[in-house]
Amino acid sequence: MKKVVVFSQIDQDVLAQLQQDYRVVVLNPKLGDINDQIRTEVVDADAMIGAGRLLNESNLAPAQKLKIISTVSVGYDNYDVSYLNQKKIWLANTPHVLTETTADLAFTLLLSAARKVPYLDAWTKQGQWKRTVSTEQFGMDVFGKTLGIIGLGNIGAAIARRGFYGFNMNILYHNRREKIEVAQAFNAQYRDLDQLLQQSDFIVVAVDLNHESQALIGAEQFDLMQKHAVFVNIARGSVVDEDALIEALKQNKIFAAGLDVYAKEPLQNSALFELPNAVTLPHIGSATTETRQKMVKLAYQNLVAALQDRTPHYLVNPKFE
Ligand code: NAP
C-alpha cells in the first residue's frame, strides 16, 4: 500500500478518503519536533499533503521514493523547488479556487484601513462614542479613487475587477510582463513600480514571492507613496520590509496599511500592534470554510493523480525544471 504523509491539519472527509486507499501517517506537532517526524516518515513515503511547513533538503533528504508533494495553497515559497527538481519530486498547488475569496479579503483590508474599521469598532465598544465623531475618526473615500495593483495575476485581476466594477476606481498595475488582455477588461494602465507608487491612492501587493519580489517594497518605496495612500499586502510578508513599513506608519508617511501576511508568522509582539493605522489579520486570505474545502479537495486530486501515474492538473514543476 502506498504511503501518504499528512503534514498539517486537513479536512476530515479528505483524510478519511485518503485512509481508505493509502497508508496514512498524520504528523502531530504535539509528538515532538515536526522536522524530525518528517525526516523519519518521509523515508518510505510516496506522497505528502499539507501546508505551512518549510520543506527542503534539511528534512526531505531521507526520501527514497517520494513522488509528489501536494500543497494546500497557491503560493509555494515554502518549498525548495530546485531541490525537488533534483530529486524528481513533483510539487502540486491549488490555484484558481481561492482567487475570489482572497480578492475579497484584499478589499476587506482596503476598506477597513480606509475607514478605520477596527479602530472605530474598539472605540465604540470601549464606550468612547459620547458625541458625534470628529476629524480623528474620519476615514478616506474609496469610490472613484486610483487603485494600484502590484502583480496582476489571478488574484490581482480579481481585485482589479472589484475596484473597477464595484467602486468605479481607476486601475493602475505593475507586473514583470505587461498583461495587455487582462488589463483591457478593467481599463488598467501599466506603470513602472515607482510611477504606480507615486500615482495610487490605494496600493495592493498580489505578487508571488520569488527572487525578484523579495523585499520589493522598502523604505525608498514607502517614500514614493502619497501621504494619504493606503497600503495592502495579501501576498507574502517577505515582499515588504516590515521595519520600513512600521516606520512609514509611525511617521504618517502613508495613511494606513492593511496586512494579512508578515515576515515572521504567526505575528507576535509586533510594533504593528501599537499602531492604530495598521489593520492586522492572521493570514486568512483563503480561510473560509467553502474555499478551504475546495483547496483541500484539489490538493487531494493532485495527489491521487500522481499516485495513479496520471499527471496532476496543477504542477509547479511538471518537467522538473
Ligand atoms: P499568480 O496568478 O501567479 O499571480 C502572481 C502575479 O505576480 C503574476 O502576474 C506575476 O507576473 C506577478 N509577479 C511576480 N513577481 C513579480 C515582480 N517581482 N514584480 C511584479 N509582478 C510580479 O498567483 P495568484 O494566484 O494571483 O497568487 C499570488 C500570490 O498571492 C500567491 O503566490 C501567494 O503567495 C499569495 N496568496 C496569499 C493568500 C493569503 O492567504 N493571504 C492567499 C492566496 C495567495 P509575472 O511573473 O509575469 O511578473
TrEMBL record:
Task: Output this protein's name.
Answer: D-glycerate dehydrogenase
Domain D-isomer specific 2-hydroxyacid dehydrogenase NAD-binding, chain residue ranges per copy:
107-285
Q: Print the keywords alphabetically.
A: NAD, Oxidoreductase
Which positions fall inside the D-isomer specific 2-hydroxyacid dehydrogenase catalytic domain?
A: 4-317
State the similarity comment: Belongs to the D-isomer specific 2-hydroxyacid dehydrogenase family.
Q: Pfam family example for this protein?
A: 2-Hacid_dh_C
Naturally occurring in which organism (per UniProt): Acinetobacter modestus
Q: Does the keyword Lipid biosynthesis apply?
A: no
Q: Which domain of life is it from?
A: Bacteria
Keyword rRNA-binding among UniProt keywords: no
